Amino acid sequence: LRFLQRIYATGPAGGSGGAAAEGRVSAPDQLGARGSAQDSAAPGALSIVSVRHWLLKSEPTTFSIDDLARLGVEHWDGVRAWPARNHLMEMRFGELGFFYHSSADPPGVVGICEVVREAYPDFTQFDPASKYFDPRASHQRPRWFMTDMKFVRKFPRLVPLSEIRQTPGLQDMQLVKFSRLSVQAVSEKEWEIILDLAERVS
Fold first, then answer.
1. Phi and psi torsions of 76, nearest 5°
2. What is the CA radius of gyration of the chain?
3. pTM of structure
4. Helical H runs in 16-108?
5. What does the DSSP assignment read for 134-196?
6. Tens-place pLDDT, residues 61-110
């Protein structure tokens, strides 16, 4: 799991090229543009692309890591905060994320999932019967997006938030500073530390 970069041999440019190289999109009128650094590369060129890690929160009474393990792959819908939405749009195929049980006793990291489909419109925003319905969204101009996540593994133990807060090297983690954000970025150092904590079974 220790990897910082991947090297891709890119083919002819095929993306829309409308977004920034990192895939970061902040304004609603830019949501349809999902170009990447590879899209603008010359045919046959080599691009070095940073591989990022993530943390995704879910209430276990609604959708737990055991549910994801049973299904194998599931869409990550219902995100309705702009910073979290933007993180979903930054995710790239094959990147890994921690699965975090929120509103639990105790809350904490319980396993790993993988991005198997990059961001696409969250269909619940168009459904008047859904609690995630957004009357301002349209199929022509969607506001909210989701990714498809695949189960990778469940940890031998839950790594509680209280332990994460007390662990050296994790004091600047988004989970510690912005604990309510449902989708967060995780640095390589933070990723490795939490992996080590997860394997410490007494």
1. -105, 85
2. 17
3. 0.76
4. 65-71, 82-90
5. -TT--SSS---EEEEEEEEEEEEEEEEHHHHHHSTT-TT-HHHHSTT-SEEEE-HHHHHHHHH
6. 999 999 999 999 999 999 999 999 999 999 999 999 999 999 999 999 99
Q: What are phi and psi of 196, to 5 degrees?
A: -65, -45
Q: What's the 3-state SS for 118-131?
A: EEEECHHHHCCCCC
Distances (CA, A) of 143 to 135, 153, 187, 198: 10, 31, 27, 36
Residue type, 66: D
Q: In this model, does residue 8 exceed pLDDT 60? A: no
Residues forming a β-bridge with 148: 75, 117
The number of residues making up the chain comes to 202
- On the question of a cis peptide bond just before residue 106, with omega within 30 degrees of 0, the verdict is yes
Q: Which helix (H) or strand (E) holds 58?
A: strand 53-58
pLDDT at 49: 55
**Number of other residues whose CB lies within 10 A of the CB of residue 105:** 7
Contact 184, 178 (CB under 8 A): yes
Burial of 111 (0-12, 13-18, 19+ CB in 10 A): buried
Is pLDDT at 32 greater than 60 in this prediction?
A: no
